[in-house]
Amino acid sequence: MASHTGRTNETADASLEIPTDWLMPGLDLETVRQAQRPDTTATLTSEHLFLAGVELVVERRWLREASWRQIKQAITRGYIYRNSPVQVTLRGERREHERRGTKAA
Asked: Could you read off the pLDDT of 54-66 as tens digits, one per residue?
């Protein structure tokens, strides 16, 4: 099992911590991992679902209805790249900075 404690602050990956009270009962960590890129770290504890990676996906069916509207509060690093009624995709800050750098040339 991968843990987010081993990651360095030098990476510009997106990350989020979703409190377990926001999650649907019985949500399986394997279901969450299947929606992610292979290089994503996913950890589920009694307190949080933690995700970190270049691009993260959060599906509405994983969260209680009231919590879906609060998903922005769970983002600890990165930004919302795509948002639909059933899914949110986050990207790391690195891509945002790279985009800015190419425009400034």
From this structure: 999 999 999 999 9
